[in-house]
Design brief:
alpha+beta; Arc Repressor Mutant, subunit A; Beta-Lactamase; Enolase-like, domain 1; 3 domains; 4-stranded antiparallel beta sheet; about 45% helix; elongated
Amino acid sequence: MLSDRRRLVLRALIEEYIARALPVGSRTLVERYNLGISSATVRSELSLLEDMGYLTQPHTSAGRIPTDYGYRAFVDDLLKDSNIKVDESTLSQLKDCATDLDDLLDKTSQALARLTDCMTMLVPPRFLSVDIRLINLVPLSQSRLLVVIVTDDGQVFDRQMDIPASCTPESIQRTQELINKLLVGRNLSFEREILPSELKDVQDDLFQLVVSEIMICLKEKNAIKAHPLGMSHLLGKPEFSDPACLMPILEELEGDTLLLRVFDDAVHSDKPVVRIGHENDSEALSSVSVIANRFGQDSHRGLIVIVGPTRMNYSAVITAVRAAQDILKDL
């Protein structure tokens, strides 16, 4: 547990490092921040913060920079601070960029990229849930089945699956009729916890197997789709001055694995979900932070995702994300 003074010093160092991307020394903090303590005391606090894992010193003669652990303490304080409200100027800019309902999501995404100086992805609600029109089960062989899913907006998905050789055409037909009875006309979300209870309660192995495949199919082929904006903002950061450093991150985005990793946590949280550096599941994302927040309600929930260096301006990004969430709440 950090003391108030240690927390103040840590916050000042992180804000300075975010602003200048250079190691920070005690003299800089004393001169630029009204800490109310001497340079010697600041040096002592910095040394202790380093020993505790909040800071690191890249070179013996250089100042210090935050670790992922240090950023985590800083961000947790931001998320707990009830005095941090949505900035009215930020909210106004987002509204100005999102006046046309037809391209509200696109303009909001563009505004977020500009305001956060990071890469932005916005997943529309229609990619987090679908309305089912029809499901067909087509036997391909004694142990192979084709599942065909048609949605109300005209999308058609299919997936092949293995089934027990003991399944008869009659059992497949019964399963198809029951699935259509329970799902047609309903909104089906890709969130694991809100699978309709009627489906969970059916005591039939083939039925449960097919339902599981339907969820996997929809989640893989429709749920996680987004077009990133603001890639140039990442390229302009000192951390990514060598484009080769950005290639692993781009590969993660191309496969949509980044969104898959934050999807479940973010759509179930009222607050922004923040993953910093090595908190991300992939080593390729160890140099970036990911901030994700849902917007909308119930089946109309979408997802806002911001990707930037671990040195991103967390306060500004979280404020902009909350503003976007407010803009899109009635979508």
